[in-house]
Amino acid sequence: MKKPTDNLVDAVYTELRMKLQRSEISPSGRLVDTEIAASHGISRMPAREALLRLVAEGYLVGTTRGFAVRELSLEDISGLFEVRRQLEPRAAACAARDMTPEIEAELTSAMAGIEQALDANNISALLAANVDFRNAWLKAVNNAHMAATISRFIDYFQSVRLGTFANAATAEQYIDGLSRIHAAFLAHDPLIVQDRMMLFMFAAEEAYLSVRRRQLEEAETLRPARKRTTRRGTA
Amino acid sequence: MKKPTDNLVDAVYTELRMKLQRSEISPSGRLVDTEIAASHGISRMPAREALLRLVAEGYLVGTTRGFAVRELSLEDISGLFEVRRQLEPRAAACAARDMTPEIEAELTSAMAGIEQALDANNISALLAANVDFRNAWLKAVNNAHMAATISRFIDYFQSVRLGTFANAATAEQYIDGLSRIHAAFLAHDPLIVQDRMMLFMFAAEEAYLSVRRRQLEEAETLRPARKRTTRRGTA
DNA sequence: ATGCTCAGAACCGTATACGGTTTTTGCGGG
DNA sequence: CCCGCAAAAACCGTATACGGTTCTGAGCAT
After folding, report:
1. B71 in contact with A at a CB cutoff of 8 Å?
2. Domain that holds residue A192
3. Measured between CA atoms, how close is B118 to chain A, in angstroms?
4. How far is CA A160 from its chain centroid?
5. Residues A79, A33: Cα–Cα separation, whole Å
6. Residue A108 half-sphere exposure, CB side, CA atoms within 13 Å?
7. Residues in a beta bridge with B31
8. Residue-wise pLDDT tens digits, B85-125
9. Looking at the complex, does the CB of residue A143 fall below 8 Å from at least one CB of chain B?
């Protein structure tokens, strides 16, 4: 029952992180350490530490009643995208320069998965393929710190992501931008990758902002004045 | 003895973080949760959680014998500076654009502190004033995510920083670059701030690389083949 | 029926305890 | 004097326990 070599908190952490990436945790659902501990057959501490780590990294917020995925404000989205615009086009250009055939194949397979999922209207598959695509080109980024930072910033958008693909026109535009980036990767042209990634960033920002704006409006009309006590800040 | 409003782990975390910023923890010294707990009159858990948080953020590494400040490889330095080059010039330009008189005063005061510390050959004061200068202009950055990310990346260099100022010529060049940035801030010229910050970044990278290279050589001659078991990675 | 109050539950933060693993250290032999 | 070996210590990871705070919901009053 005990494997001392690899610790439990990392296991719980990576599992939760994966679930976050795949939008399997809704902002309304509460994460409680005791529940996670019970479902894994472990004690509270590892589960709690994993949750705290996610809080420290900004993915979750601690409320008085369990942990919840962090909801991004419009300012958050703008700010996060400003950082992403500084990093991702450049990093993608590096990736295009240093891309190996294996990674190219992964990229193409992920792209195929995305188009397939779009045709089948399978949102969860679309999200998964999307993550695959991102991770594929990030593997070609030699700078580990750069890749980790980018990964982090992308993952913040979990809570908004689902809604982005609800609108068919937006989804199509999104896929189009991605396939153009993909083509540039295959052409091994770092500069075109950089340009198209930058365009993609701006389009994505617009999409997320409009989706989130709609979400906020809906929430406002649904429950006019509901206080959500949040004790622990993002530090 | 119990203040439930503000928790102990945050207190320990911020204290350790401050000490790290000020280079008050040497890479050779080991941080042990029980010691920290005892010195604060608390139990192991808060101290331990604070340490784990610092590990998760990449400031510390967990060894089999306590925690230690992370030692940067030459690749780490290059990679970290690549990210910094993408972020800091741009952020500084934004800060120059949105600077308030109060922050300007802080900047000038920090700059004075730096020159004073340099004249007095007071390294710890120099480090403190350096942190002040950085924090001052970062306060003018409206984008909280940008500021936090930059802060994070700068703090990684704690373990190398002290040696940077040992060489008088390097120190002078460093201060000169900083004072030129300061002047550009005062002139409210975002573009010049951006350019000078970029120049500063390249110079700083060179300085850190050479210092670290020397450190590594020294360490190698000192103890030829000493294995340092590090269990927990940077995730 | 609606608003208020108080008891109970849920959950967080911290403390203490225990087992396992790795490093150190002290001792005896080469 | 140096090297191996075994006992002991140090430290980490996990489990369990307890007190405090906040939310909830039922009962009571208006």
Report:
1. no
2. 74-220
3. 32
4. 9
5. 31
6. 10
7. B67
8. 999 999 999 999 999 999 999 999 999 999 999 889 888 89
9. yes
